[in-house]
Amino acid sequence: MMNTFSNTLQLPHGQLSLPAFLPDATLGVVRNVDSADLERCGIEAVVMNTFHLMQRPGSSTITALGGLHRMSGWPHPIITDSGGFQAYSLIRQNARFGFMNDKGITFQPEGSDRKFHLTPEKSIQLQLSYGADIVVCLDDCTHVDDSFATQQESVNRTIDWARRCKDEFQRLMQQKRLPPERWPLLFGVIQGGGYHELRKQCAEALLEIGFDGFGFGGWPLDNKGQLLTDIIAYTRELVPPQLPMHALGIGHPANVLECAGMGYGIFDSAMPTRDARHSRLYVLTAHDAVPEPGSTEKWFSYLYVNDDKAIKNNGPISPYCDCLCCSRYSVAYLHHLFKIGDSLFLRLATIHNLRFMTQLMDRLRAQSYE
Ligand SMILES: [Zn+2]
């Protein structure tokens, strides 16, 4: 029996069955597909990105359009991330794009004619004005290779910012006078890089402040692209099992399986949709189950639609998939669409990989009840 975290979160815009995979609708859209496509794939929630949305279309436009749900025609739950990870990545890429101090983050992306400020309070204000179902605290992100001193500073700042986020969240929610069951959830993010003692320090302080769930913060892969299994598992154990944990940015099917086995319940990544656009499609090789995490059993493979082997392949991508693409179109036709550069390829391929991810989640949920 797997240790999968299985539960249902009740959110203002509906329920989210865990474990769940959420595609990244970074700029308010999962590229190439519409909301009805997502519903048909079994997607229950998406992740949208405060860092990008505050730039385009901009916060006043989103508010004028009635929030993210109305703007994007998506009536189901939305997690907004705080913007911390993207701002960190931008500044790490080149320090002239911005800086971070105890007050918050200031950044000016290349090509932008204005400076943006993100403080813990501002991040919460924006996410609530967007209508998010799960709001994430602004954190100070690091890379696992950063020094102990840098990780300690990040943990101190992350705890301080989490406290400020919680205060701002409660202040704004009390102003709205909504009954607590209609409040969005507030998640804290646990930092500390690869240091067990720092992860523990961060988790204990955040648990004391009190949050509805937690994210694993920091880049989850090492320099070779391998999952940081040990510290990810350790961090999950620091949080009581009944509180959901989000494995931020983890979306490779093998990594999702592994982290679900550790008790993570929420996953988001641009990988499945990006792979689809690059003609890398996921195929389940086992009909009705996924193996226990850590098993060497091969349970999925890649099918490259751009490959010559696809030219006369008259079958579907997967006989076990019930998506629009597999129930109607052959691999050969997809290959043709890819070669002529028709946008229908992007839509069908994206739908298929998303359905693969929701089928994986269905199986994990079913196995956790066995
Ligand atoms: Zn399919």
* Derived structural class: alpha/beta
Lateral strand order in the biggest sheet: 3-13-12-11-10-9-5-4
**Mean pLDDT over the full residue set:** 94
Helix content: 40-55%
**Main sheet?**
8 strands, parallel
User: In terms of per-residue confidence, which ranges show pLDDT below 50 for 5 or more consecutive residues?
Assistant: none
Shape: globular
SS elements, strand count = 15
Q: How large is the share of residues in beta strands?
A: 15-25%
| Separation of the first and last Cα atoms | 7 Å
Rg, alpha carbons:
20 Å
Bound molecules: zinc ion
The string of secondary-structure elements, in order, is EEEHEHHEHEEEHEHEHEHEHEHEEHHH
**Number of DSSP helical runs:** 13
Give a brief description.
The chain is an alpha/beta fold. The chain is 42% helix and 16% strand. α7 links the parallel β10 and β11.
Q: How would you explain this protein's 3D organization?
A:
The protein is α/β, with parallel strands linked by helices and 370 residues long. Helix content is 42%, strand content 16%. It is built from 13 helices and 15 strands. The strands form 4 sheets. Strands 3-13-12-11-10-9-5-4 form an 8-stranded parallel sheet. A hairpin with a 2-residue loop joins β1 and β2. α2 packs across α5 and α5 crosses α6. Bound molecules: zinc ion. The site of zinc ion (ZN) has 8 residues, from α11 and α13.
List keywords for this structure.
370 residues, alpha/beta, 8-stranded parallel beta sheet, 3-stranded antiparallel beta sheet, 42% helix, binds zinc ion
